[in-house]
């Protein structure tokens, strides 16, 4: 699943206690996700998925809090110092197994121009209705 087109990007929480690296292929448009489920909406979560082997936690493990709810299938990791959630871990049938969901806004190397270039490829998930394969009727607020 790794390829030589992939480059290493660095991600940080706000206080930079949590530092991680991800391998991403930016020669094609980055597919990002927003969702209207209870936790994504409240945290204004914007993510992209990588395979677990494409993710490396560099530092901050001892300052990571873990939040889970509902069926406990998804692990939400947050920095206990600054409160930012840099990534989540879970399993998705659509994705094809285990994934790490990366907070797009934690990748400091993304320029504002790059961030804007991702927006035409956002997949909006109707998680609030447990309908993960369709764009919700109302999504522009996400
Ligand atoms: Zn922090």
TrEMBL record:
Residues in CENP-V/GFA domain copies: 9-131
Zinc recorded as keyword: yes
SUPFAM superfamilies: Mss4-like
Record bears the keyword Zinc: yes
Keywords: Metal-binding, Zinc
One Pfam family linked to the record: GFA
GO molecular function: carbon-sulfur lyase activity; metal ion binding
Classification via InterPro entries: CENP-V-like, CENP-V/GFA, Mss4-like_sf
UniProt-recorded name of the protein: CENP-V/GFA domain-containing protein
Native source organism of the sequence: Polysphondylium violaceum
Family per record: Belongs to the Gfa family.
């Amino acid at each position: 699943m790794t390829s030589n087109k992939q480059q290493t990007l660095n991600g940080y929480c706000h206080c930079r206690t949590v530092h991680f690296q991800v391998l991403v292929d930016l020669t094609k448009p980055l597919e990002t996700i927003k969702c209207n489920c209870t936790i994504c909406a409240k945290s204004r979560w914007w993510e992209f998925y990588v395979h677990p082997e494409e993710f490396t936690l560099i530092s901050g493990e001892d300052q990571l809090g873990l939040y889970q709810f509902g069926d406990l299938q998804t692990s939400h990791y947050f920095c206990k110092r600054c409160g930012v959630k840099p990534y989540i871990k879970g399993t998705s049938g659509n994705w094809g197994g285990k994934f790490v969901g990366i907070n797009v806004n934690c990748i400091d190397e993304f320029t504002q121009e790059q961030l804007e270039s991702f927006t035409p490829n956002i997949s909006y998930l109707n998680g609030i209705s447990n309908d993960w394969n369709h764009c919700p009727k109302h999504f522009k607020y996400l």
